[in-house]
TrEMBL record:
<dbReference type="InterPro" id="IPR036412">
    <property type="entry name" value="HAD-like_sf"/>
</dbReference>
<protein>
    <recommendedName>
        <fullName>HAD family hydrolase</fullName>
    </recommendedName>
</protein>
<dbReference type="Pfam" id="PF13344">
    <property type="entry name" value="Hydrolase_6"/>
</dbReference>
<dbReference type="GO" id="GO:0016791">
    <property type="term" value="F:phosphatase activity"/>
</dbReference>
<dbReference type="GO" id="GO:0005737">
    <property type="term" value="C:cytoplasm"/>
</dbReference>
<dbReference type="Pfam" id="PF13242">
    <property type="entry name" value="Hydrolase_like"/>
</dbReference>
<dbReference type="InterPro" id="IPR006357">
    <property type="entry name" value="HAD-SF_hydro_IIA"/>
</dbReference>
<dbReference type="InterPro" id="IPR023214">
    <property type="entry name" value="HAD_sf"/>
</dbReference>
Amino acid sequence: MKSSPTQLIDYSTYIFDLDGCIHFGNTVAEGAPELIHFLRKRKKRVLFLSNNSTHSPESINLMLNGMGITAAPEDIYLASSITARFIMEAHGESTLCVAGTDDLIETLRAQGHSIVPPESDTETDIFVLGRDLTFSFSRLKACANRILRGATFYACNCDNTHPSLDGGKEPETGAIAAAITAMTGNSPRTFGKPERYAYECIMEDFALEPDECLMIGDNPSTDIQGAHAAGIDACWLMLAAQPEILPDGTTHTYRTITDVYIAMQKQASE
């Protein structure tokens, strides 16, 4: 394997996190559309990887297009679609019990799976958890008892919180999974970042080697460590952080996506 590039501009493929990197809630990050246009003009591949289990690649595509970022669903890798892919590879078409949004359910159905809700009388061998916006005490009981009866427990990601538009936090898939684990003693297998499987899906689909890719994101425990686990270089957007020690696997550090854009422009002109 050849050595990784030393400059931001020298990779062939750029994998961007979404919320906290390309956009903040419903607001596009300053400089993000310009950076992506700049990379594509230089014939670079631009992909997106997010722990989002609430939406589908199609709905994220519409959101990005509305922000001035051209994308295609096949360029967008979400925890929901990665989970659906793993289940198909490991189990084939299956009947799944799912606690999550309609987009998660449709993503799983698109892979050929049949879906039943946790409250159904239909028994399944697999239970899949996403960021369930309708989660309740009764649903917790239904989900936990399915696992106690032997269902395999999969969760789309391990994130405990999700940024809210008011600047606070909302519970994410990991927080709901923790409640189920507390009842059952069983922890789920997860598929979003920092699991290397998410990155391996991208490299397999585009016939990439790790040293061709750069992951750009703001979360050290998911974006940076996940890339490092897959052998991929990472660019950490520190935003407001004041780190004393860089996260393992960090190759480049910048404050914002605009800073990354400025650095790439400078490197390209040298």
